[in-house]
Amino acid sequence: MARKLSHQRVTYVLPLPDAPGGHRLGVNGLTVDRQNSILYSAGRDGVICSWDLNVPLPSSSAPKDTSSPDQKPSPTGFKTQVQAHSHWINDIVLAQDNSALVSASSDTTVRLWRPHSESTEVPERIGKHTDYVKALASPGSHATWVASGGLDQKVYLWDLNGGGEVLNINAGGEDSTDKGSVYALGAVSSVLASGGPENVVRVWDPRSGKLVTKFVGHTDNIRDIMINQSGDTIMTGSSDQTIKIWSLTAGRCMNTLTMHNDSVWSLYSDHPDLSVFYSSDRSGLVAKTDMRGSADPDQGLCVAALQEHEGVVKVVAAGDYVWTATPKSSINRWRDVDTTVGIEQPPDPDRTIDSATAPATPPEKGPKKIPFNAVLQLSATSIIGGSAPTLNSSEPNLETVGLTLPVHSQPEETIEGQHGLIKCLMLNDRRRTLTQDSAGEVVLWDLLKCIPVQTFGKRHMDDVESEVNTVDSIGHWCTIDVRTGRLSVILEPNRCFDAEVYADETDLPPSDLYQFREDQRINLGKWILRWLFAPVVDEEIRRDSEYRQAAIARAEENARLNPLSTSVPGDDIPRSVGIPISNPQQRTNLRPSSDFPASPNVGFNSGTPSSNYLSTSMQSNSPFPGFEPDTPDATVPTNSQPDGGSSSFSSNDYFSKRPLAAPQTDNDRSLLSPPDAASNSGLSQSPAEPDKEERKKSLFGKKFQMNFPKKLGRNSTDTKPQILEEKAEESEISSIKEEKVYEPNLCGVVDRIRDDYEEFLATNPDRDLETALLPSSEDETPRLEIPSRTAVFIQEETGDTAVASDLYRGSVGRIGEDLERLKKSIPHWLGELLLKNQIPFKEQVKVAFVLKPFDDTLPPVVKPEPPAPNGAPPGNPSTNNNGSRLNANRMLRTKKILAYVAERIDPANPDEPTESVMPPEEYLELYCQKMVCSSLILCSQSY
């Protein structure tokens, strides 16, 4: 199977309103730094937070604080946070003596953050999988590596000092299956264990990567793994509601614990022998198990320590406290349960006491004992209350066991999170989006200005949509998602230029609309990209000016030192900078811009200095003569003059925009054409076209011979652009010298332009060197003030990864500082847009329709269809040879169709002044589906 080619895309994330620190979505990872009394948390929002606990946390071997539970510690304080990943964070571990924090994410990367460093840089990437990374394991605080496992069925060992991959293990082994993903990891210096939906625990040698053994016994996904310090005991928690204890020495399962009645999601222990551990499940129950002093784990004590309202994804403990993470953005702190104080005696059912006459029992002194109904049975063979020496010698009767009640039902403290976005909906105008957060708040966003526009409170999103949505029909140009609790906008190169909007339909201030022509359109993708990367454009213009000055000085010096080496420029020498061809594979035909006329038989080869060049350029200050490479990723030159039309529109489309100063020109009629005329137009036409003057006067070539009057202000002198076909023989191709290959990024775009400068100056040292940078002007893409906190990502998608990987991460406010990094990350298609205002070529989408008089009360606009031969249905495109079916750009306004109808039924009088002509939309109506269409409605909206 062929590998899918990679491509780069741009993603920008709209900033949320300023709020205190904390997570926006559910928390997936927790870990505690005992030395510094810091809690680290990581969640589905891709954020890592650090919290100052303000409580003493003795080491696991130190005695616990026996102070009164009523003495409340200081509240937890927010310390700092970092947006470490662009997708969910699934696990975190501390490493290198708690100076580094390693995180694993669904963005397929493993990153290392040094929270005590003053650097504000994004955490360093130390490893990468090809699918979601689900689990991490560290062999100890002094280890030099960390292990990661993911859905790609791989377990990697990564060097914590940035040395990359240390070891690569195929977690599925030789009998790898579709269920070989890794969901759980455990590690010590001598043993590494992995587990997942295959229900098998595999034990590996972390030095060689060889399989030591595997344990079979679970019947559902293995969710968590712990290994004791000596490396001979493994504990696993599974979705089959059991916790199993495996012995590496015996090579089998020693005990199966069944105190949970739901899927076990998390295990935690800081005891070197795992004799004291915590376990949590999907129902929200957290159990504490103490097996110290018991010959058999089944005889240990298990207590229902606390009960959450949702499933507990992660549980950690330190000192006298336990912290739990749930699908919510908050973190709860609970008082730990002391399992050494004993269990209260159960009530005796045979004993009846008159409560009125019985003397009051004085309260017992000392620590409060564990309620009997909070004790859990470890397994079917275990004894309630266990056999720990601290327990009361009398064994409770199993028949007295009733409903289990956890020791704690309310947390001691809640570390509050924020409300992240959980739903989004794109409106029909493709510029606004509705979102709803976890609190139910509905907000309307502007995707171009990157700001919230309106807040609707806690309402149903569907109700708000019906109020604010429009009947617009704009092309899809971006993808939106809220997977990290923020609104992300993804721009793919094959579709981000598909949407246009009329300038008079935007919310630009009236003072700015005067610079736009009537019915001028603005490309949404070009608009936002131009101002997201505005600092890049400004800096490259400055550098380009400096380079040209230095290049001119070098050329003049060379000409002075070697006056005979420079030939006198003639007609066969370039008079301006041309467009080079990057490599032989990309060398194809050159074609002129669709916005300017070209002579049919003029062509050139940029690899040969003696080739002919067009003497006219696209613009007065452009060094390029209006040509572009016809490559697979060829770009279409766009206008820098004040027009809004897309450069990809065919010149034969009726009413397409051309960058001319006149309000309306002959291009207005080109948006409307019969299917066969459209199919022969644009890029498919031959350079030498017969009857050119005759076709220039005809709307549909040979089908309709009709001169358009001056009624709509058209210019009959406009010529039709021709496409230059350059066919090279094999001998010519083989004789061409090897062309320079440019990098597919912004560096390559700049290098190509500078090589053109040098080539031009080598043959024209006495000529002015005009800039080749032609970014879009504010007449085409009005200025946008984008918030500086708007995050910007440049990502790459390849066929061997599940999600796009980040090539660049920054913000609008930092783009100017990151130019050197961006030059390697900005893809070629984006560089061509920013510096040359060129976009990848793509065939435009048209709609087909038929114009007929209403109830036959007006003369026909087009010839009626002939009878269908052989009983074929009328209107069949295969029998429609008279042009009754018309094609138009989907963005065509109906008033242009009305103007076309007016010309056909009421030709203009050349002697009549144009000022006295009534606009067609004032006396004509267009019906579609028996409904009157507004003059400003789009052609695509009528369907």
From TrEMBL:
Residue ranges, annotated region (Disordered): 59-81, 340-369, 562-730, 858-886
Swiss-Prot/TrEMBL WD repeat ranges: 20-54, 82-113, 126-168, 189-214, 215-256
InterPro entries: WD40/YVTN_repeat-like_dom_sf, WD40_PAC1, WD40_repeat_CS, WD40_repeat_dom_sf, WD40_rpt, WDR48, WDR48/Bun107
One BP term from GO: double-strand break repair via homologous recombination
Polar residues composition-biased segments: 582-592, 602-623, 678-687
Pfam families xref list: DUF3337, WD40
First and last residue of the signal peptide: none
Keyword Nucleotide-binding listed: no
Start-end of Low complexity biased regions: 639-654
Domain of life: Eukaryota
Biased composition (Pro residues): 861-876
Keywords on record: Repeat, WD repeat
Cited PROSITE patterns: WD_REPEATS_1, WD_REPEATS_2, WD_REPEATS_REGION
A GO molecular-function descriptor: ubiquitin binding
Protein family (similarity comment): Belongs to the WD repeat WDR48 family.
PANTHER family (UniProt xref): WD REPEAT-CONTAINING PROTEIN 48
Protein name (Swiss-Prot/TrEMBL): Uncharacterized protein
